[in-house]
Amino acid sequence: MKGRGSTTALKALVGVTALGVLASLPHLPVFHPERGDPWITAFILANYLAVFAMSWDILSGFTGQISFGQAFFIGAASYTGGLANAVWGWPISISIPIGVLAAVLLGFLVGFPTLRLRGAYLALVTLFLPILAVKLVSIERFARITGGGLGKAGLTPLAIVALRDFNNDGRIDRADLLLRYAKIQQLDYYYSLGLMAFVAVLLLWLARSKVGKIFEAIREDEEAVEAAGINAAKYKILAFLISSAIAGLGGAFYAHYWRSLVPSEMLSLDLSLKVIIAAVLGGMGTILGPILGAYFLILGKELLGRTVPSAFTLNLPPGWTTLIFIAVLLLVLRFARQGIIRLPLLRGGQRGRAWP
C-alpha cells in the first residue's frame, strides 16, 4: 500500500509539473503570440483533440464499445450551442451548457437502441452518424440557419474579454492591434489547456471509481458482469452519456474558438478517425494516453512540416507531410502496440498490460 501511495504521489507530481510547463509556454521567448504563433495554435488544437480523444476512450477504451461517431456528438454540441449564440444571441454561459445537453440527449438516443450491438456492428452504425449530420445541416431548409456547407460565422469568441480591453473610439494603433492578437491567442490557449486538464482529472477520478472498474469489467467479460448481478446495460448507457457529455463540452468550446460553425471541422468523419488514432496511439483505456496521442498527432505533424528542409520535397507530390507522417505513425505503433503511454520507458521499465 505504501508503494502504491508513493507511485500515485509521483504520478501526481509529474502531472502537475507537466501542466505547469504547458501553462508557461506562451511566455517563453521562443514563442511570439503577438504574431499569431503557429506553435501556440498547434498546442490549442492538440488540447482540444486530447479532450475529444479522452471522451472516446472512456467509452471505447474502458467499456469496449467501439464507436466511429464521436464527431457526431462534437458537432451536435457545436451547432446547438453555436446557433443559440450566433442566431438567437444567447450568451456563452448559456449556449455552451445547451450544447452539452444536446450532446447528452443524442448520446442516450444512440446508446439505448445500440445496447445489443458489439464490435463491427456498433462501429458501422456509429460510422454513419457524422455523415448523416453533415447531410442534415446541408439541407436547403436548414441551410438558411446552419449556413450549409459553408458554415455559420458570428459566434462570440471565447477571448471576448481581450476584445473589450481596448478603447472603443475606433482608433487602434498597430501596437494595440498586436497586443490584442497576443491576448486573444493566449486566452484561447489557456481556455483549451484548462478544459483539457479539467476533463483529464474528472475522467481519471471516474476511471479509479467503482463505476470505472465496472466499465473495465464489461470490456473484459460482459456475461460475467451480468452473472454477478450488475446491470451491464445501465452502465453501457452511462458510458455513452459520459462520453457524449465530454465530447459535447469540448465541441461547444471548440466552436467558439473557431468563432464559426464549419462542417468539415466539427462533423467530418476525418475528425472521428483522428480522435480514434490519437487514443489508440497514446494508449486505450488509460485516459492519459489519448493526451499523449493527441499531442504526438498534432505537434508531430507540425514539427515534420517545419523541420524537414524544402530541398527534399522537390520531387514529392503535394501532401508529402501527411504521407511521411503516416509512415512515422505506423513505425511508432510497431514498437508501441499498446500505446505510447505503455512503453517501458514511461512505466518505469515495466511492460504494460495488454488491451484485449
Care to describe what's here?
The protein is an all-alpha fold. It has a domain at about 35-270. Helix content is about 70%, strand content about 0%. The protein is built from 15 helices and two strands. It has helices spanning about 1-25, 40-65, 70-85, 90-110, 120-140, 140-145, 160-165, 175-210, 210-220, 220-225, 230-260, 265, 270-280, 290-305, 320-335, and strands at about 150-155, 260. It has a two-stranded antiparallel sheet. Helix 9 packs across helix 11 and helix 13 crosses helix 14 (about 290-305).
- Oligomer category: single chain
Strand runs, count: 2
Encode the helix/strand succession as letters: HHHHHHEHHHHHEHHHH
- Give me the secondary-structure category: mainly alpha
**Whole-angstrom Rg:** 21 Å
Q: Record the strand order, biggest sheet.
A: 1-2
Whole-number mean pLDDT: 83
Q: How many alpha or pi helices? A: 15
For the terminal residues, how far apart are their CA atoms?
Answer: 28 Å
Helix amount, in percent? over 70%
Shape: globular
Percentage of residues in strands: under 5%
Low-confidence stretches: 349-356
Q: Main β-sheet, in a few words?
A: 2 strands, antiparallel
